[in-house]
Write a structure and sequence with these properties.
Elements lengths: L6 E7 L27 E7 L14 H8 L13
Antiparallel strand pairs: 1-2
């Protein structure tokens, strides 16, 4: 079982940030969000059941969010190495 097996990520548009219920997420608040390069998209993460305010949104697993974040829309240079 992977470290983030029960964790899911959802990408949101900037206009959706005002409707985020941070009490249902792992982020502390809007100041802790990571944005794409042009500040039009962000993402949130949760564990367990999907919060109702995210209903209808695609949930990504760990591998899927990593692939998404490696794309040019989210990176401004070479991918960091671990």
């Amino acid at each position: 079982m992977t470290r983030y097996a029960d964790r899911k990520w959802v990408i949101l548009s900037a206009s959706e940030v005002a409707s985020i219920d941070f009490s249902q997420l792992l982020e502390a608040g809007s100041n802790s969000l990571r944005w794409n390069n042009d500040n039009t998209k962000t993402f949130v993460k949760y564990e367990g059941s999907k919060p109702s305010f995210l209903s209808g949104k695609a949930a990504l697993n760990h591998a899927q969010i990593l692939t998404e974040l490696e794309g040019a829309e989210w990176t401004s240079g070479p991918a960091p190495t671990e």
